[in-house]
């Protein structure tokens, strides 16, 4: 609940400090006295955007500070979500600096207006004429029915499951998109992989293939040159071997004359031996030399294939081709394994969907069960508020798809008078009727959930007599479970408060100031008497005021 409010340098307020208690608090004052200023300051605490024009003295800082007792509000988790220190005595402060810059603090921690609004909405509810329209909105109507149905935990669980379901849907869609993209390339990748696999790249020795090709392609020239070399070495008398042998014989004759001559002879002998070996090898090569057109064609084809692959894949060696082939194979495997992954996700999605259906059905049944109770209570209260012929119908229809709080469509239908037909609430109820409907709904909600402090801003506009008296009874009854404020012009409502504050203006040195004062019992009698009969108080007005208060 709101325990204190401090406003400094705001609009017509120099400085105002006021404490509040639980129960039913009345705020009265003449039109133009500054009740809207009080609400405006409180709205800044709730996260409304600030404006330098709202500052009374633009050379000084404007400060609005509200203290709340939140022990009964179960807001620990929200504080954790907002990364704030939890304190049962929570202080919210707004500052407007002379520069026009605005700052917000929760328990002295700087916060954004978004986070301020997220918390303050759970602390105080300013019910104005504009806010009455909430009752025509889907989210609020669901909030009402689900409060009576005690669906909060069910909806939280459903929301968590729906998040997982949507995540599965997204993953499945991504897998399908990946498969579609891979399928476009699959046939081409399969062709490339087959082409690279058929050549058996691991067995390819390019240098050996090229050497074999050169040998087979030039067999006649090789044979001719081998024969010529053999003739040069082995021709009678003119052959190199004969000449070497002759040289060896001559050097043998002088080898004993010194080491140098012996060395020359040995070197000539070595050359002779090497030439003999060369001649033997030439003979071997000549024997092996043969023409093989088929082998030549095979090697030539293989080399052409490899060179074409080099060009196609823009690489220079067989190792790079092997890497490309392996990468392509992985892509093919991915395409084929996607089918299994998609099938798994589809199965998970079916299970998640079935779980959601069961959870949504439970939420639906709870709603359906409490709707007659809600309608009965609402119509009974509205009858007491001067709408005896008002009828409500709440239509609950199961959808074929999931929404954030189940799979229901909810609609409040209203009929104000006998003989008319049900229509959407926003189309069939007047502003005054909506105000009374909203009051009735909030009085019902107060029996089911812990509502924040509520400030009714002239909810009694347009009503009088017994209806206003009943409105006051309803708000007083609500105040047994929560803190209730009512800004009112009606003495019947003002008399029912447990505390009474008056907003008034004073002129000091030709400057107007707005003040707020808690009235004593005597002052309260006078205020209600003035509300009954005007500034000139009569004995009958005083007597009536005392009667209302008693």
What do these coordinates show?
The chain is α/β, with parallel strands linked by helices. Among the domains are: 1-123 and 452-519, Rossmann fold, CATH 3.40.50; 183-336, no CATH class. The chain has helices spanning 35-45, 76-81, 113-120, 138-148, 152-198, 206-217, 219-234, 240-254, 259-288, 293-313, 318-384, 425-428, 431-445, 465-478, 491-494, 521-533, 539-549; strands at 2-10, 13-19, 24-28, 62-69, 89-96, 102-106, 109-110, 124-127, 391-403, 406-415, 423-424, 453-457, 484-487, 499-508, 511-518. A six-stranded antiparallel beta sheet has the order 2-1-4-5-6-7, with helices on one face. Strands 8-12-13-3-14-15 form a six-stranded mixed beta sheet. Strand 1 and strand 2 form a beta hairpin. Helix 7 packs antiparallel against helix 9 (259-288) and helix 8 (240-254) runs antiparallel to helix 9 (259-288). The chain is elongated and about 170 Å long. It starts with a strand and ends with a helix. The model has no long low-confidence stretch (mean pLDDT 88). May be involved in recombinational repair of damaged DNA. It holds the Pfam family SMC_N. Residues 155-219, 335-369 form a coiled coil. Belongs to the RecN family.
